[in-house]
Structure formats: C-alpha cells, structure tokens
Amino acid sequence: MRVTVLGAGTMGAGIAQAAATAGHDVALRDVEESYVEEGLDRIDDTLSEGVERGKVDPEARDAALDRITGVTDLAAAADGADLVIEAVPEDMDLKREVLGDVEGHVHADAVLASNTSALSVTELASALDRPERLLGLHFFNPVHLMGLVEVVVAERTDETTLETARGFVESLGKTAVEVRDSPGFASSRLGVALGAEAIRMYESGVAGVADIDAAMELGYNHPMGPLKLTDVIGLDVRLDVLEHLREELGERFRPPQALKRKVRAGKLGKKTGEGFYVWEDGEAVRPADGTGGGDAASAGDGAEGPR
C-alpha cells in the first residue's frame, strides 16, 4: 500500500514511521522543507534509539527509512496514494481545507483519513465531493509504542473505506477500536474527563501533583498519571478538547481554571519544559508545585497518550 501522511509533526512522523516499518511506501508531506526535515530526523532518531536498545534491527531501520519520501508538493505527495492520513493541527477549518485540497489529487479509490482526536469526522467529510471515503484514524503518542488506533466511522463512511482502514491498522500490528463519530469519540472523552478531574483536585488542594498521579499509577495500574499525561499531550491541546466538548456536551467538560492559567502563562507541558511537571531532556524531573516526586513522578515513563 502507498500511504501519504499530511503533516510532519510528532503524530505525522510517528504514523509515517509505523507505516514504513510495516512495509508500506510512505510520502511524508508538510508545507515547508524545514518541517519535513524535522519530521524525517525525528523518525531517524526514534528508529536509531530502537537499534541502540536492541528493539530494532539495523537493517529494518534502514529499510523503513528508505521507504519514506519527504515532500512539500501536495500533488507529488498524493500521487498514487491508496491511503492519505491527515495529521495537521486540531483546527476544523485547516483540516477541511487540507482534505479538500488533497481530494483533487488522489485516485478515485483512495481512502482519506483524519488523525483528529476530538473533532467531528462527519463535519470534516462535508468538505469533500465524496464524503463516503473519509473516516477517522486516531493514533496515540508515541505511535511506535502504542497498540491502539481508534477507527472513527462518520455518518457517510462506506464499508469499503472501513475495510481498507481495518486492514491498514492490522498491517501495523495494532488493535482497531471502532467507534461512532461523536464528540471526543471514546478515548479523548474519557481521557479528558479523568484529566480534568485530576486538575480540579490539584487546584482545590486535595493532593499534590505527584500524589494524584501515584494514586492512579499504583492504585489503578495506569502506566502514567493523568497530570503527567496532560503534560505529554500538551496543556493547550487538552484545553482545546475540553472547550470543544463543553460546546458539544455541556458544562461537565468546563476546563479547570488551573489549566487555563498555565496555558495563558505558556506552560504547556513537556514541549515547553514546564506544565504540571518540570521537564528536562524529555523527562519529568519534578512536580512544578514542589510537592516531592521520586518514584511517583517517574513511574509512568515510557507510555504516552493521545495527541
């Protein structure tokens, strides 16, 4: 299968890597050459780290890299694609524009997919001449480690599109969870509900950051506590999802004030170096509120959540 990934950021690069590792030919496209190069470098770094850890054979790394072509031209990226996965930022207008543009460059049987974590796939499909060939393929970060892909069936998604998507997810060695297109789908809706309640507990003084996370990591066997996971996802991303769900589903998804304050201050989590934790070299080193840490602050390392 020839796969085109639109957007060379964290998720786009991860999806491209997973597809190439599974043996698919991949075009990774972004609007500027520097973005494409950053995405390709990220893939190379991840695969090389896998080699160093003995998880990836050097030959498999080289073969995967050879299967990925980085491009900026949309027509060239879409040429011959059997599956196009949009992985641009979570903005409805931007996603509709990108999907509408790429539809004009793919063959009639090509399947289109969005990696959106919360936006309506049915609304995204309304920008297309053939909305029946669009669905959601919601991957989780880091893509190469996470075993789940949420397959989101829009109102007009046809069976052929769905079968192609199922086969692609299976080819990656991942599990497809099929959900109906509804606000937040299954994973984002449940994830932000837990994360928002953890933030409310923190801001009301129920417990410190590390202790709240430890309660879920050690008490419920979660691989990562909800506050650290919020940092990994990005506080701005989590805020956007909560505001979207509040509009769609009501006040139970009202964003906590502590989350809003941190976003306004530019404390967006791992990507900015501080959120609910302080991050150094990609690792959470201590809670930003100064309340201890130790094993509780690091127990969830190695598993990250949705975009």
Automatic annotation (TrEMBL):
Keywords: NAD, Oxidoreductase. The lineage of its organism: Archaea, Methanobacteriati, Methanobacteriota, Stenosarchaea group, Halobacteria. Residues 184-279 form the 3-hydroxyacyl-CoA dehydrogenase C-terminal domain. This is 3-hydroxybutyryl-CoA dehydrogenase. NAD(+) binds at G7, A8, G9, T10, M11, G12, D30, E90, K95, S117, N141, K271. GO terms for biological process: fatty acid metabolic process. The record marks H138 as: Important for catalytic activity. Residues 3-181 form the 3-hydroxyacyl-CoA dehydrogenase NAD binding domain. It comes from the Archaea. It comes from Halobaculum saliterrae.
